[in-house]
Amino acid sequence: MHLFLAGLELLMLAFVAHVIAWRIHLPRRPIRALLCIFAATPLVTLPIYFAIEPLPVLTDTSLADALRILLFYVSCSLVYVVLYSAIEAQSPSLAIVSYIASCGSAGCTEADFADHVIDDESISTRIAAMKAGGMIVINDGKCTLTPAGRLWATLFEFAGDIFRLPLGG
Amino acid sequence: MNGQWTITIAPVAGLALNVLTQIMTAHLSRGKIGASIIIGILGGLALTLAVIALAHTAAPGATGGFADTWLLGVTTYLALAFGFWAFLNLNITSLRIRILRELVRAGGSLALSDMPVLYSGAERLRRRLERLENGGQIVCKDGRWRLRSWQVLAIARCVEALRNLILPRSARERP
Predict the structure, then answer these.
(1) End-of-domain residue from the set A88, A109, A142
(2) Which residue from A68, A79, A109 is facing B83, i.e. has the nearest CB?
(3) What is the pLDDT of residues A12-24, one digit of tens each?
């Protein structure tokens, strides 16, 4: 049980650090800041842990077990980073479902969505986030990929071909 | 390879099978993406469980208790599988990725006024309603949309709760 709990404790520590940091100051590049917090948490915690050794059973852990905790921690951290983008900017699909739920058993028409769910602001928010993230630049009404943006765009296009994914949005 | 190392690599082996199965199923079924994702996830989970069981049987004393053997392995696999599903789902649903893909298809640069995703609000709405209807989440009767299932609503409520916990009030009020 101690390996599983050690992984969970690391995750909880990183999450608490993230909530406190966000409450103090919302970072300009939140995903990068989130990755830094989740990477820094074990790097800061482990030397302290080994210095004070509160539970010798963990300091005697084999390399395979340590790798198992690391794998668990990294994969769960990445799950949270993925979920964070839905927390940061409300997903249109979730907004549609929430809106329909708020209408109750009477339901609602498509015209209602046009007023409440699909708005140009959500698009401009995403474009602003892509600009802030260094994916695109906009000059004279023209949108251009940066080298980093081109790399990501090529990766997603390649993935679309390999996994047979349609153009989304 | 001893039991401990076999258990360590079990979730990674599961993820590898998940990816390969999804690719093969998507190509063989000619674009049945939903089915290919589910088959991939289940295939990967089966392999993860099989590898852990094999290691546990080969060296029962060396692999730890139930939580450290099964719970840690299965949770790690599910987290990895979720990451892969999110990557696939992002390609299908994300407006940002659609913008990136449209830009790369256009050679890297496009006038804002020429980007289909920016002017076709009705198309974006239609696609999302169609996806939610196909997924059994909502249903249209007599021109009115109603909720059919609670799963996505539960996710929306959880996301809203996390938003309230994490983001300061000023950021929550933005769309």
Answers:
(1) A88
(2) A79
(3) 999 999 999 999 9
Alpha-carbon distance A143 to A108, whole Å? 36
> How far apart, in whole angstroms, are the C-alpha atoms of residue B115 and residue B47?
43
Q: Domain for residue A148, yes or no?
A: yes
**Pair (A81, A126) in one structural domain:** no
Write out the H or E segment, with its range, that includes residue B29: none
Q: What 3-state DSSP class applies to B138?
A: strand
C-alpha radius of gyration, chain B, whole number: 21
| pLDDT per residue as tens digits for the range A13-55 | 999 999 999 999 889 888 899 999 999 999 998 888 878 777 6
Among the residues of chain A, which ranges form H helices? 2-24, 30-52, 56-59, 63-88, 92-103, 110-116, 120-132, 147-162
Q: Are residues A75 and A124 in the same domain?
A: no
| The predicted structure's pLDDT at residue A15 | 95
Residue A166, domain member (yes or no) = yes
Sheet holding B109-111, edge to edge: A136-139, A142-145, B109-111
Instruction: Supply the range of the domain harboring residue A25.
Output: 2-88
How buried is residue B147: exposed, middle or buried, by Cβ count under 10 Å (0-12/13-18/19+)? buried
Instruction: Give residues 46 to 65 of A whose Cβ lies within 8 Å of B.
Output: 62, 64-65
Per the listing, tokens 């990068």 go with A32
Chain A, window 69-88: residues with a beta carbon less than 8 angstroms from a chain B beta carbon = 69, 71-72, 75-76, 78-79, 82-83, 86-88
Q: How far apart are CA B71 and CA A6, in angstroms?
A: 13
Q: What residue type is B89 in one-letter code?
A: N
Please give the Cα distance from A150 to A99 (Å, whole number): 36
* Contact assessment for residue A1 and residue A59, using Cβ atoms and an 8 Å cutoff: no
